[in-house]
Amino acid sequence: MQNITTRPTVVLLDVYETLLDMSPVERKVNKILGNKLGYTLWFELLLQYCFVDNSTDKFHDFTSIASSTLKMCGHRLNEKVTNDDVENVLTTLRYLPVHEDVQEGLSALYDLGLRIVALTNIPEVTVRERMETTGLISYFERLLTAEKIGKYKPAKEVYAWAAKELKVDAADVLLVTSHGWDIAGADNAGMLTAYKKHERQMLYSLSNDPDLQIKDLIELGTVLKKLPVI
């Protein structure tokens, strides 16, 4: 599927699971919770309470919500989650490996002269540290994080704020993500969307289809290279 006819000005990239591999966290959380679906339960609950903050006009930092919801999952599954367990998971989140396609894919996008920006719910200090230690920071014009606006994706305000920060129309931005809720949010804000397929994720069937579906960032570079620049 491809509904994009011209090359976008900005490629806006999600981070967790889109660029960074969450497998180490999945294994760790499943072990702590004693359940092979523990990670899925925790991550869904983490997102749920990010969305609760959006709906109640409050903002707790991502790390605090991650910590709280991990303990909530332990209670639900009758597994004691200690402070050391929480710190272990948070430390793992800070040192996630990069997906194999990312280095080559970012290089291809950069060579096309595209503006490459991250838009994430992760605290800025965390994403900046990881991009610097992996050497990927040089590809990025900006690292935009939810804490700057006090709302979490997929709130429409986050995407609108990102476009305003970059001084572009939302329609000139291509949001690339492995999360169906992120696709829905960016589409609602008027952005182009590209879904990077992932076995742990899925599209939301009640939202609009993404403008593009790709297996990795390398394929994204190949597709965008063929499109005319306006």
Strand content: 5-15%
- By secondary-structure content and strand pairing, the structural class works out as alpha/beta
Query: What's the number of helices?
Result: 9
What value does the Rg take, in angstroms?
17 Å
| Mean pLDDT over the residues | 96
State the order of secondary-structure elements, H for helix, E for strand. EHHHHHEHEHEHEEH
Going across the biggest sheet, name each strand in turn: 3-2-1-4-5-6
Distance between the termini: 22 Å
Q: Supply the CATH superfamily name of the largest domain.
A: HAD superfamily/HAD-like
Known CATH architecture of the largest domain: 3-Layer(aba) Sandwich
Low-confidence parts? none
Helix content: 40-55%
Can you summarize this structure?
The protein has two domains: 140 residues, Rossmann fold, CATH 3.40.50; 72 residues, Putative phosphatase, domain 2 (DNA polymerase, domain 1). It is 46% helix and 12% strand.
Folded structure, characterized:
Helix 1 packs across helix 2. The chain folds into two domains: 10-21 and 98-225, 3-Layer(aba) Sandwich (Rossmann fold); 23-94, DNA polymerase, domain 1 (Orthogonal Bundle), CATH 1.10.150. The radius of gyration is 17 Å and the shape is globular. It has a six-stranded parallel beta sheet, with helices on both faces. With 230 residues, it is of the alpha/beta class. The longest helix is centred in the first third of the chain and has 19 residues, at 38-56. It has helices at 23-33, 38-56, 62-76, 83-94, 102-111, 124-133, 156-166, 180-188, 217-225, and strands at residues 10-13, 115-120, 142-145, 173-177, 192-196, 212-214. It contains nine helices and six strands.
